[in-house]
Design a protein that fits this description.
mainly beta; elongated; Cathepsin D, subunit A, domain 1; five-stranded antiparallel sheet; about 210 residues; seven-stranded mixed sheet
Length: about 210
């Protein structure tokens, strides 16, 4: 019967493998078992064939290493070595093309419902006409009442926070907006969304890439 086991102190060198959001460090090796630390948490002992809540399965163990399936990727991790393999998150970006008047108009979504936006870097917030807010099911009258200066003069508005705003594969959460009672006929994609993007314009094409 095999009686071998090997353990390395956490302060020493151990092999770490990063896949997606899971960091796995092998701390000890025993027959058919491995002691691991996942994402800096407490030590746990896995048996061959056991799968963790993080999607990590111990496949096999030998004298010097343990082999895992980590979120669909096979990795053999040994003691006394160090290795980091990091998967970068997918870039969230969208490309817009100007119309004949030079305006950037695009379909997006607010709280999962389609909206036809006009990009407006001069607007501090996303701005919505009252009718559009009603169509989207936004209870704007519970928001803070403010006075808004528009091209047609001063009008009333309500400050609201939108759960989600999406453009292409870009989705932001908790975006400030204002619902304007008069003087606005179409939704404006203002700086409360655009400030969280890197904006790059090349001719008639604008690329928005999410920063945070």
């Amino acid at each position: 019967m095999q009686r071998w086991h090997r353990i390395v102190a956490l302060a020493g060198a151990a092999l770490a493998f990063t896949a997606q959001a899971a960091d796995v460090t092998v701390v000890g090796i025993f027959p058919n078992k491995a002691v691991v630390q996942i994402d800096g948490g407490s030590l746990r002992t896995l048996a061959v064939g056991q799968k963790t809540a993080e999607g990590i399965t111990l496949l096999s163990v030998d004298r010097d290493s343990a082999t895992f399936d980590i979120e669909g990727s096979r990795a053999t991790l040994g003691l006394g070595q160090a290795r980091i393999s990091r998967t970068e998150p997918a870039v969230q970006s969208v490309r817009l093309t100007a119309d004949l008047q030079g305006h950037f108009r695009t379909d997006g979504q607010i709280n999962g419902r389609t909206v036809a936006f006009t990009v407006d870097t001069g607007a501090t917030l996303i701005a919505l006409p009252v009718g559009e807010a009603g169509r989207l099911g936004i209870d704007y009258q519970r928001g803070q009442k403010v006075g808004m200066r528009t091209a047609n003069g001063v009008t009333g508005g309500y400050l609201v926070k939108l759960d989600t705003v999406s453009l292409g594969n870009v989705t932001l959460h908790g975006v400030d907006a204002v619902v304007i009672e008069g003087g606005l006929t179409f939704p404006l994609l203002g700086m409360s969304f655009l400030n969280r993007m890197d904006m790059k314009r090349e001719g008639d094409v604008m690329t928005l890439t999410r920063r945070y």
